[in-house]
Each structure stands twice: as structure tokens, then as C-alpha cells.
Amino acid sequence: MKRLAGWMLATPATLAIALLLVIPVAGTIGMTFGTPGQGDWGIVQPYADFFASNFRRRVLWRTFEVAGYVTVISLAAGLVTAYVVARCPAWTKSVLVVLAVFPLLTGVIVRSFAWLVLLGREGMVNQFLIWTGLIDGPLTMLYTPGAVIVAMVYIFVPLMVLVLVGVLENIPEDLLQASSSLGAGPVASFFQVTLPLAVPGLIVGAVLVFTASFTSYATPALLGGTRQMMMGTFLHQSAMVRFDWPGAAVVAAIMLAVILATVLVMTRLAKRLNPMAT
Amino acid sequence: MPTRIHPLLIAFTVVVYLFLLGPLIIIFGASLSDTTYLTFPPQGLSLRWFENIWEISAFRRTIVTSLQMAFLGTLIALIIGIPAAYALNRHRVSLPAWLSTLFVLPILVPEMVIGFSLLRSVTVQMGVPVWYALLIGHTLLVIPYVIRVVSASLASFDFSVEEAAISLGSHPAKTFFTIVLPNIRSGVIAAFILSFITSINDVSVSLFLTGPGISTLPIQLLAHMEQFFDPTIASVSVVLMMLTIVVMIIVERTLGLAVVAK
Amino acid sequence: MTLPLTIENITAHYGSTKVLEDLSLSLAEGELVSLLGASGCGKTTTLRLVAGFLQPTSGAIRLGSKDLTRLPAHQRDIGLVFQNYALFPHLTVRENVAFGLKQRKVASAERTKRADAMLDRVGLAHLADRLPAALSGGQKQRVALARALVIEPPLLMFDEPLSNLDAKLRVDMRVEIRQLQRANGTTALYVTHDQEEAFSISDRVAIMHQGRIMQLDTPETLYQRPANAFVANFVGFENIVPLSVTARNGAEVTARSDSGAELTLSQDQLGAIPDRFLLATRPDGLQVSTDPAAVGLPAELGLRTYLGRAYQYQAQAGGLSLVANGPLSQPLETGTAAKLVPNPEQCAILQPE
Q1: Which of B135, B219, C82, C128 gives C86 a disulfide partner, CB atoms 3.0 to 4.6 angstroms apart?
Q2: Does the bond joining B41 to the residue before it have cis omega, within 30 degrees of 0?
Q3: Which domains occur in chain C, in start order?
Q4: ipTM for the assembly
């Protein structure tokens, strides 16, 4: 009876996700396999084709590179900022949290657009550099990997800050008091107590940012264009511009595999490194 | 314990916040420009680009579609997500463990992959009209948020209160509406707002599901940016930021912003 | 090494709320003093001020000749035992104990040696490589104690160290704490809300209320001679009867209650008795008697409860609600008229408020 009640309540959501997500995505993955006997690689021929193409390999590698840079930079900037925010007096802290939530709630398009304005040939950054006399003519900054990385860091730092403020606040205050009562100054306390205890949280934040930047579309599309194609923009181009659906499906499947592998491996790692777990 | 923080760390934090907020302020300035191309600082002040938003019919139509998707998608997600969250918390023992994993799939699977897969199966194979396919995509997208946020507030709900009501003669179904729902109200409101914002801002799923004549605002903004580089985009951005501020004020007044930070 | 602690005229605020007012306290070398009181009385605030986690609004804190008042917490050299143990969850038991030595730049081998020796003293040498999560509450508390002791601090402080342990373990642990503190001769400040705990292990106890010390004395004095109504009530003198002296005859004093009952008390037993005073007794020290010749407060008995060693009665005596005990041999019903006879050995004389 109770079992039945539980199932009845969970059924609509279960059906919705099974029918409208699991089956369609499974279908996409299904179409990435070739016919056995065709080509050297049999049913994985489409994947072999993907990796045989210099261009596609470069897209995949570039995506890893950009996502990696974005993750590392966001982690570093986010950790320092979160450390300061978490130690601020209550009122200042809530203002700083609100100021981080605001960009987070503002759409990705709007935030990418801001960098389009800043980094253009006539943009503020060029105008400023010319004014200072550092350069004579405008630099080309749009459609470079640097532009994509800067804009993505911009997009993901607020997320990282909020995650890490939560992580740092979860570290019991009395551990830091114990540490200082035993003679550890702020620096020693940070490296010997705070940082080791924050590692699982840092991993969670890094996974969030890595997966989101690996699969992002709007920012690479606006700031990287076709010259700095990443997996997201390449998937879109394959499916909607070139109508190469089997090719697009392979891109989608590789994307999915990278994300699932990252999430699985890293959450295991975070769990293993969590000393708070009993 | 508010301790002294090294001035260098504070300086770094100030720089990070300038980096976070500066570009948004620049958009605000650019939207007030009197010129037909984007500059900052604006040359001559005017609100003409704000008027322009409503004059471009594509914006008008896509704003309406975006609001429809966000509102209806969130509503459907609440209707099917709240019972699921309740079941997960109340009947956890009788449900398989993989169910909660299933419910986070829409977040776990990249939105681009979901969008492309829905295009293939729902739009093309099943022939579902564009508007409905878009609604399906937006509903799927926000279900995990609803389940997670509502679950969080159910987790702190003491179910013995519900049992007390039932022991006093209240029908279980009625008890849900008179006892449980009022107690998780703030969670439901938070889920609504979070879902609404997620849906309004979505690019990656909508990208594949919009069709001739039916599009959402972010997709329309992307298309517009490919052709024009005028301050209309900045004005739309400002309007969206204003909406965000209004939402944040509402959240702060009703629930406290800590909800969003989680 | 051990040093005396002096707290001079400390006032402290949380925001705009005053939590300590002009508090002074000194601990002699090797002395264990408890701060005892209900939550919110200021005892933990006092400890946190000495530890350096809070700053006083005014006043000074000295350890030996060193002024601690503005010194950062990590330079104060105080061993602190926390209520929740506050063990570092990512470090083994040995690393936890060695943490303070590491901060003092003690070489690695020496660190391990001293940490192991200290763990041996608290009987946990066999758990040195475990993580704190694998320990029981009592073991965690021992590690916390070892961690605070190993740095050989001139002052030890305990913040309700036993409140998370079960009753049996609490008694064992407090004996152990007292033995270690005695053996090291370390000055110690001990915060608790548990009266039995404070009285059993302290040289002196400060009973605190609303940010002030109401009385600082040995446990024996506090228990038998409370200085005021608050302390009397705190240590179990539930009955407080206002009386006025009507006649003095040498050491004998005759006093009358507001309702007109007369009692005869001896100053030899109770100390000097002022003209107006409060007579405080525990229920044990106020015996119910139905003997018409008994000298006591006439009362009407109310609800009777069974204590095992005696019956206890709620009684009404001339407008006062009192609690008195009566013999097991003679259970009395509600409404019985009786006399409540104070036992001078279990009474205290207080100044009227």
C-alpha cells in the first residue's frame, strides 16, 4: 500500500524524464554507431572518423584546454574571494553574497554580450590601451581563445564564489579556534586546517565549472565565433547549419561521456577525501 | 569571528568584484547611447533604444514566448515535481535508489545534448509542433531544480506532524494540502523562482527547439547580435537585469537570498 | 610551568548588549576555578575573552606578568579543551596531539615522541593512527585533553568539556581531568553549567548570573553558607523565609515570621543574625511534624511525592509556598495541618535583598 503510494506520486516525473530525456538521448547515442562490417572500425567507425579529423580533434582539445583554464582560474580567484567574503562581518558578507548572486541570475547572453562590447576593435579595452599609449592601433581580441576564457571566467566566478563561501562556512568555527589556541597564526591555520577541509568542496566547485564550461554554447559562439569552435558550437553547427546529424550525434556522445566520466570520478574522489564523513 | 584580513586579500577581492560588476555597469551605460553603434561612454543620452525593443516585433513575440515557457514549464514541473519530491522523502525505503539519480539527469546530461536529442525525437520523429516541443524542453530543464529545492524543505519537515493530523481524522490527501504544503511553502516559492529564471535564461536547449516564427528571447538576442551591433541589445540586457533585481528583492523580502545561494 | 591568571574589571559587549560587567577574578598558581551558571550568564564569554576569541570593551587580562588583553589568540599559549572536542577531522589522533608542537617548530621526531607520550598518559596510545571520526565521545575528549596538555601551557581552560558525554563517563572523565591537572600543577579555568561537576573538581567556584560573579568561594562554603538569595537558590535552598528578630538572649535569638510564627535560632550554629533576615533551608532541612509541641512554622500540607528516602510535601505556610520533607513512617494526606521545623544544621542566614 505504502509502496504503491510512493510509486504513484513519483510516476509522472519518472515517466516524463524516462520518455522525454532517457529515450531521446539513448536514441542519439544509438545513432552514433555504424553498421558492422563497414569500414576498418566496424560499429565505432563514426568515432574513428571523428578522431581522424584534425579539425575535430582540435575542437575537442581546445574545449578541454579552455574548460581547464577557466576551471583553474575560477578556482583560484573564487577561493581567495570566498575566503575574504566568509570572514567578513555579517552585514558586509550578505552584501557581497548578493553582489555575486546578481550576475549569476543575469543571463549568459547578457553577460557574454558585455565582453563583446568591451573587447571589440572599437571596444573600451582597445580605446583604453590606445589612450595609455601602450598600443598604436586596436588589437584583435574577439574570436581568440583568450576572449573566450576571460568571458567564461567572468561567467563562472560568481558560481565558484558562492559554492566556496558555503564550503568555508561549513568548516566549524571551533576548529579554527582550536588551531589558533594551539599557536597557529592565520596563514598556518589556512594551510593546515581550512584548505585540507575545503578540498571536497573545491572539487565540487571545480566539477561544476568544468562541466558547465565544457558544454557551454553562448559564450564560445559570441566571443569565439567559428574560428574558436568548441564542442558546444561545433555540435550546433553540425546539427543546425550543416545538418550532419550522425556527426552531431557523435559530438553529443563524446560530450556526454566526458561529463559523466568527470562527474563520476570527481565525486568519488571528493567523497574519499572528505574527512568529515564518518 | 571577524578577524583581521590581510589588505592584499581585500584588494584582490575588490578587483574580483569590479571585474564581476564593471561589465554590467558598462552595458547599462551603453543602453543610454544616442548613437546607432555601441560606444561607451555613451555619446548623448537617450532612451530611444528602449523604445526600439518593443518596436521590433521579433523581440515582442519572443518576450511573450519566453514568459509563456518559463511560466507554464515551471508550473508543469511543480505539478509533477512536488509529488516526486514528497515520495522521495516520505517513501524513500519503498523506492529504488536509482530514482533520485534519474531525477537529476536533466542537470547532469549537457543541455546541448538534451536539446539536440529532443529536436531529433520530439520535433522530427514525433512531429510535435515547435511551441509544444519548446515547452517540453523547458519543463524537463527545470524539473531537477523543483525536486531538489522542494526536497530540501521537505527534509526539514517533521513528518510526525502529518501523522498527527491523520490520527486526528484528516484524510491523507487532504492532509498534504492543509498540513504539508503550507509548511514547505517557502521551498515551493524558491523552486518556482529558480526554475523561472533558469527557463528565461536558457540558451542551450531552446537553441535546437525554436522554429520558424517561434523563438525565445535569448535565441532572438543571439540572432540579432549576428546581424546588428546597435544598443538595442544593451537595452534589452538592462531590462533583463532590472527584472533580475526585482526578483532578487522579492526573494529577499519573502525568503531571504540565502535560498538562491544554495 | 604554571602561572596565575588575573582578570581585572572586564566589561564586554555583544553588539550593543552588555554581557559582562566589571568582572574581576584571579586564579592562584595551580588552582582550578570553575565558572558555574545557567546559559547566558557570561561564563563562556569570560573564557572566550581569556582565549582571545573576543575582545573586552574595557579591562585587562594578565597571565603571570604577560598582558594578554590585546594579544592575538594564537600567541596566548593557553591549552583549551572544547565542548565539541574540536578535533581536526583530517588529521590522525597523533597528528592532532602534535599540532600545537608543530606550530612551535618542534622537530618532527621530537613531536611524535611527545605526542605519543601524552597519548600514553591518557590511555590512547593504541589509537594514535586513527582518525577522530573512528573514536567514541570519551576517547575524543581524551585526545582533546592530550592536545591541550602536550603544549605544556601555563593555563588550561575547559569549555563545558563533559556535556556531550553520558552520565557515567562524565564522572570518570572529571576525575581524570582533575588528576591530570593536579599532576601537572597547571592553573585551570573550567566552565560548566553542572553544579555537581563544578563542586566535585574545583578548588573554588564562581557562581555567575547576568554577567556578574554572585559568589566566589570553595565548594564547601558555597554549599553551606551561600552569601545571597540567588546563590542559596542555586545550590538548592528552596525555602526562603523572611524573619524579624523579636528578642535576643545571648546566642539565642527569637524571630517572628510575617504570619506571626515564632522560631528560636542559635547564633552559635548559624553565625551572626541581623534584625531582619532571610532563613534559607533545603527541603531536607525543613521537617514536617504533627507533634503539637514542635516549634516551627504552621502549615497546611499539599501534594505528597515519594523520594525513596523520605516523603516530600508542597506546603502553604502563612502565604509562603515551601517544600518540606517528612518521615516515611507517617505518610500525611493533603490538607493536614502540621508544623515545619527547620534543622539549624541545614539552614543559612541571608541578608534581605
Answers
A1: C82
A2: yes
A3: 5-232 (3.40.50.300), 236-350 (2.40.50.140)
A4: 0.92
